[in-house]
Amino acid sequence: MRRPFLLLMLAGLLSLPALAAETHDTPTPKELLAQSRPQEWRRPDPANLLDMKLPGGHVLIELAPDFTPLHAANIRTLVREHYFDGLAIVRVQDNFVTQWDDPAADDEDKAHIKPLGGAKKTLPPEYTRAIDPRLEWTPLPDGDVYAPEVGFSEGFPVARDPATGREWITHCYGTVGVARDVDPHSGNGSALYAIIGQAPRGLDRNLAVAGRVIDGMELLSALPRGPAPMGFYTDKAQRVRIESVRLAADLPPAERPRIEVLRTDSATFAKLVEAKRNRHDAFYTVPAGKIDLCSIGVPSRKE
Amino acid sequence: MRRPFLLLMLAGLLSLPALAAETHDTPTPKELLAQSRPQEWRRPDPANLLDMKLPGGHVLIELAPDFTPLHAANIRTLVREHYFDGLAIVRVQDNFVTQWDDPAADDEDKAHIKPLGGAKKTLPPEYTRAIDPRLEWTPLPDGDVYAPEVGFSEGFPVARDPATGREWITHCYGTVGVARDVDPHSGNGSALYAIIGQAPRGLDRNLAVAGRVIDGMELLSALPRGPAPMGFYTDKAQRVRIESVRLAADLPPAERPRIEVLRTDSATFAKLVEAKRNRHDAFYTVPAGKIDLCSIGVPSRKE
């Protein structure tokens, strides 16, 4: 009784089938993952896997070249030229975004702004793409406030509009977007943000989505919020230095991050979604019977 | 160009009407708040206003006695007996909750568990209440994945089901809930949590909601995540000590927090919701035309 709320998810930590059978009718997410088959997991393509090293550890980001190919290519160029090394997290706005870019752009002395090297300075927006029936599509059954259809595609939370034939990655917790100026062509991937609060779905179709954080979110979400408007840090010492960003493909195989992501077209993922829609463990009085797109995390695991 | 994403909300910071007229068709939230009338703001009833003092500052919580009267009364008793003074934040789970309670309950030596004094050890659940037409009701127009109707009532995000005649405060960012054990009667207000991520709406109707954080969220949301399952801190030194929790009504008037909350039945709040639904400033290519309940923050301001 003195550790209330603990059992809310404790059932998910119990892996003994006998006990599980006693306390709930349906398997918990933890049990489902334990029962998953190896082929239901995939290793992100090293050409799409970014390893961002911060003082506190590593943030792993999977790029989404099927949705934003020009941005993925430009980010790869920036990474290969070590553009991000020594840049910083400059902005953390509560319940919104953590953003990293060239801090020199925010300082009075703009003489030290880092050049973009071989990367393009402007890019077409790539906010949406034509629906491609060849891409995986795992629809969700409960609708969405913002879009006609939502689901998962290649591990990303995606919305679709059959009327326009377009689809786009949505701004959920952990989504990594391309910061830009007012001009829609001004984004180039040199400034990126990650969503750290309630999904700001109003950003959908207004910004290019570069990918998704698949590990290390807490290194971005638990940072002190900046005191200036929009969460900018006012004291340069508050900024978090980016030690390096590397593409896994550019690392020797032995040094690549060893991480797997659950396939969103797998049977286990479908069961996870259903388990989140209808929790039947003893803690829950009323199963929701519904789930919204951004409340479903795509599991990853380190080897 | 070198401070991309900045202008996403910069338009909201510009208060010059002339410039505003040049850059967008509709007023920004910042402009709307600047134009609000004094009577559109309310001071929370001091009997419902908690002031939690942490090492980093004050978190202000407004209780919701019209929704959870027995819990509000029990929490007032606990606060008046200084129950929370010296307790701690024991758990921070990324994209979910920050929880505070008696840390002695988590330690091996349970001899030092603080007694509840005059407060009740168990309470009826109070997960939902009968819809009361006398309470303010400001409905939202865009639907909801989880409930037949959603809107705001007395400053709180609320869902309703006309079929059952019930309504309940929803688990949005900043909602403060009553932790409990499996037994629905085991919650008593001595352990509380605040939502710090994507709204976990599956908790709705399964936990009593005590109220909402109206100031100081970043003191709860930016804390280091705990390494143990469910975000519990493993090292006692990681816990954040609660210096005190006081009811504003118990403080001399001069020492009470001076904070106002925008009335959710005000014309300005309606305009804010519309401005979030359809952003017309130059940054946005496609206005969402929709807004979900938990993406609408209720503004507060300190005097």
UniProtKB/TrEMBL annotation, chains A, B:
Residues 55-247 form the PPIase cyclophilin-type domain. Residues 1-20 form the signal peptide. GO terms for molecular function: peptidyl-prolyl cis-trans isomerase activity. Pfam families: Pro_isomerase. SUPFAM superfamilies: Cyclophilin-like. Keywords: Isomerase, Rotamase, Signal. Its EC number is 5.2.1.8. The keyword Disulfide bond does not apply. InterPro entries: Cyclophilin-like_dom_sf, Cyclophilin-type_PPIase_dom, E_coli_cyclophilin_A-like. The keyword Secreted does not apply. It comes from the Bacteria. This is peptidylprolyl isomerase.
